[in-house]
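Predicting holo structure, phosphoribosyl ATP bound.
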Amino acid sequence: MSDAILEALFETIEDRKARLPEDSYTASLFTHEKGENAVLEKLGEETTELILAAKDEDETEIAHESADLVYHLLVLLAMQDMELADLLAELETRRE
Ligand SMILES: N=c1c2ncn([C@@H]3O[C@H](COP(=O)(O)OP(=O)(O)OP(=O)(O)O)[C@@H](O)[C@H]3O)c2ncn1[C@@H]1O[C@H](COP(=O)(O)O)[C@@H](O)[C@H]1O
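Done. Tokens:
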């Protein structure tokens, strides 16, 4: 996954956060009655689904569930008023 794809996805998430379109799943996370707990629960569910896919050694499902997990992680960053750059900078500091 390139930075460009992550950046485009994060821009879309920030757009949904700003405009809150009615037909948007992303917007529904920002307006959920459970607040931030809604996306935190999704992160837990997607992590469990990823673990099960890994246990099954199912590469298609591993990719699918990983994408679900990364998407919800980016929604959490946006919800915390953070930037994708915060995550990328943290990863960059770990490179040797
Ligand atoms: N990348 C995603 C993305 N990944 C996952 N999801 C949603 O996250 C939810 C995942 O929850 P579940 O695992 O419970 O879903 P499910 O339907 O039971 O099962 P699977 O998705 O696991 O098959 C589903 O409703 C997915 O549609 C996403 N929804 C949106 N995006 C991106 O966000 C953009 C904007 O979407 P809207 O906010 O809907 O306009 C889209 O164009 C995409 O680029």
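Helices lie at 3-19, 25-30, 36-55, 59-79, 84-94.
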